[in-house]
Design brief:
Blueprint lengths: L2 E2 L4 E3 L9 H10 L5 E5 L10 E8 L2 E9 L7 E8 L8 E7 L6 E7 L4 E3 L3 H7 E9 L2 E9 L17 E8 L2 H30 L11 H23 L9 H27 L3 H5 L1 H5 L2 H30 L9 E7 L2 E8 L6 E3 L6 E2 L1
Antiparallel strand pairs: 1-16, 2-15, 3-4, 4-5, 5-11, 6-7, 6-12, 7-8, 8-9, 10-11, 13-14
Helix pairs in contact: 3-4, 4-5
Pfam families: Cytochrom_B561 (PF03188), DOMON (PF03351)
Subcellular location: Membrane
InterPro entries: Cyt_b561/ferric_Rdtase_TM, DOMON_domain, FRRS1L
Length: about 375
């Protein structure tokens, strides 16, 4: 007799399309008889499920099969399984199935740290633990089927023994999408700070290191510029020492980061305005030296800034409207009955179209 008592599973879904009907129907017929099955969303029936996951114990190995529909961007996608002794993925082992650009889907092994994911590059080690049976993308559906050896504890690879109770996490999505955005954000921010430092040096050289901004508008221009520069220098430093996304103080960092960024931008804009826009610019002699060029540059800058902001905001709104699946679910903790489980618990919280489902894995027997 097959019984599944407890499993904890986290599922992150970024697109709302269906997994292939054939796979889900076959798995559904064998659920609770030959294998354990989990479909996302919970309680769904083929062909309306977004993700399908099945597992079957055979001797010293487990056969897994995961299937997820990929509406777009078939390259650079992944599905992963995490194994943990608590409800967080830190210093825990991971099995992943990925489809990279110009490459067939492949199976791999890795582990998480507190802030990053590390691949195990040793092919021999991976082959000792995993045997790839099938990895393919057909009609937008990514399917991975493989055997996993029921391993003992291996501290070097952050592997905990699968003979003891543990939590399982499932996740799918884009590879490195957020990392690229974050890298660009940090690079541009740091580059801007370096350019500001160079401009400071140029000003000090031009004025022989003497303060000449006692009178308006020179004083206001200098103070606003100094304030903006200090804020720009602090931003990359704050980014380096930021807390993790799930930390309870992260909201304070987000607020401080945003306030400092917007405040610095406003001070910088006001400082430049004092130097380029009449009547202030007349007192600084900018117009006599450079004519209408400074004013034209600042007007062009503001026009580009406004157009960019409107365009990005419009694209963001359209992107949200195109999402085919959303939820109004709030925090909840439910106990429900299942035909394949004696009992299981579902804990769901759905920010940003992410869905968390939990079933704590205790024992499986035939």
């Amino acid at each position: 007799m097959f019984s599944l008592l407890h499993v904890f599973i986290a599922v992150i879904s970024f697109r709302s399309n269906v997994v292939s009907y054939e796979f889900q129907q076959k798995a559904l017929d064998e659920c609770g008889i030959k294998k354990g099955c989990i479909f996302h969303p919970d309680g769904c029936k083929p062909p309306k499920c977004l993700l399908a996951f099945t597992y079957n114990f055979t001797g010293e190995v487990i056969e897994y099969e995961i299937s997820s529909f990929l509406k777009e961007n078939l390259s650079n996608r992944y599905i992963a399984i995490g194994f943990s002794d608590d409800q967080e993925m830190g210093n825990d082992s991971v099995i992943y199935c990925q489809a990279s650009r110009n490459m067939d889907p492949e199976i791999g092994l890795g582990y998480t740290t507190t802030k990053a994911f590390k691949k195990i590059e040793d092919v021999i080690t991976v082959k000792k633990m995993l045997q790839n049976l099938e990895t393919e993308i057909i009609n937008g559906t990514m399917t991975c089927r493989f055997l996993q050896k029921i391993w003992d504890e291996n501290p070097e690879l952050h592997m905990k023994s699968l003979y003891i109770p543990h939590y399982i996490f499932l996740v799918n999505g884009l590879i490195d999408e957020q990392s690229i955005k974050h890298m660009m954000h940090m690079t541009l921010n740091t580059t801007g700070s370096l350019l500001i430092a160079v401009s400071f040096i140029c000003v000090f050289i031009a004025e022989n290191g003497k303060w000449t901004g006692k009178n308006f508008p020179k004083g206001i221009h200098a103070i606003l510029g100094m304030t903006a520069s200090i804020g720009a220098f602090l931003q990359p430093i704050m980014g380096i020492y930021r807390c993790t996304p799930k930390h309870k103080l992260r909201i304070l960092f987000n607020c401080a980061h945003a306030i400092l960024g917007y405040g610095s931008f406003i001070c910088a804009a006001a400082s430049i305005w004092c130097a380029t826009y009449p009547p202030f610019s007349y007192k600084l002699g900018v117009n006599e030296d450079y004519g209408i060029v400074p004013r034209s540059l600042i007007i062009t800058f503001w026009v580009i800034t406004v157009i960019t902001a409107i365009t990005l905001e419009t694209l963001s709104i359209l992107k949200n409207q195109l999402k085919l699946y959303s939820t109004n679910a709030k925090y909840n903790y439910l106990q429900v009955e299942s035909s394949t489980c004696n009992s299981h618990w579902i804990y769901s919280h759905c920010p940003d179209f992410c869905f968390w489902f939990g079933i704590y894995y205790s024992s499986i027997r035939f």
